[in-house]
Automatic annotation (TrEMBL):
This is M48 family metallopeptidase. Residues 45-241 form the Peptidase M48 domain. Residues 1-17 form the signal peptide. Its cofactor is Zn(2+). Gene3D superfamilies: Metalloproteases ('zincins'), catalytic domain (3.30.2010.10), Tetratricopeptide repeat domain (1.25.40.10). It comes from Neoaquamicrobium microcysteis.
Amino acid sequence: MSSILSRAFAVRLFAAAALTVPTIVQTTLPTAAQQRGVSVVRDAEIEAAVRDYARPVLEAAGLGRSGIEIVLVNDPSFNAFVAGRRIFINTGALLMAETPNEIIGVLAHEAGHIAGGHQQRLREQLGRAQTMAVIATVLGVGAAVAGSAAGAQGLSQSAAGLMTGGMEAARRSLLSYQRTEEITADRSAITYLERSGQSAQGMLKTFERLAGSMALAGVRVDPYQISHPMPRERIANLEELARKSQYFNRQDPPALQQRHDMIRAKIAAYTQGHAAATRLFRDNPRSAAALYADAIGTFLAGNSRAAVGKMDALVRAGPNNPYFHEMRGEILIKAGRPAEAAQSFATAMRLDPNRSGIIQIGYGQALMATGTQENLRKAVVELQTGLSREKEYGTGYRYLAQAHAQLGDVAQAELATADGHFYSGNYRDAKIFAARAQQKLPNGSPGWLRAQDIINYRQPGR
């Protein structure tokens, strides 16, 4: 991630659920997510595009009304995984995928895990594997004690082998189960793509990419020691079925492809730099995506004046694109022109069909930056409304706290700070600020009750 971060492409830490189902490609990220949390990107444009990619396959999987959330992970590898009712997908996957169809195939696979109840069944398999390991350990300890009492060294050595072998058998059993679930999710994905009238070519291309990467790296893998089938095996299992579909040669609609190019431009500029973003579109340097990458790259390089001019040209060419206006507003804030930035954000809000809370928070930030009392009061309203739709957007609470503080409302500033810490998972500081806010708020008021909720909160499992 670039050292210069905008509000529109903000990164926060998000703790993944305690269990994740293996991803469509082999990676250790789910385990890392369990241990450290994952770095999550918030961006209205990218989130809207990926939600639109996911909608048809989620409907086909019977998950259209299940409240499935798409979460963007700041990681350069081609990866996706599920945790609870959330599908996590790496920015690296979006950047490497040349077409929306490739990402749609990934999302269809992850939908297969959710619809198939694989997470719960994996928990059950983990329990069985742990039971097998415990039994092997108990038997091994018993044999070791017997061998020691009899003075039989060979029996003690056999006991050690029994313990090791039992645990290895449990591990292999779990891996075998996971590979079976991956194959099931692959087949489910083909079904969802067929039902939604989309091609499975993107899925096959993903596996081809992985197989090629492994070949180039000279990777040699024991297929029984991994949680996923080998890429060539997955292609063999799916290719005939995929090619039978009447939709196999269907291409993504041009408008959807252009949106995909736009989000790739943004991700490349923010995560890999101006030069990398420019190279991504070197075959079509005058395309809207190439110009978008150039404008963002210019902004991140610190040349806000030139970046505004480049965004102005894009706005003239695409006046109804809400994300052009949002990015223009972002740049204008950095250029010290907050009143104009507020106008751009207001236009973005009007044009945004998704009513993104992130864009509305940007509008509130711009209003706040003007420094007038009237706009500060407006900023509080806009920030609160945006946060009502984006409760986990920690950056918004920081702006809200600043706006309240500038208006002299210390209690509400401390409550907003408490909420920001709470939704960032920093419960200790959240409780401290909630207690401070509560001392200044009227007993029983909505703010007082919210502070009490934070103070009383207990983390699950503790």
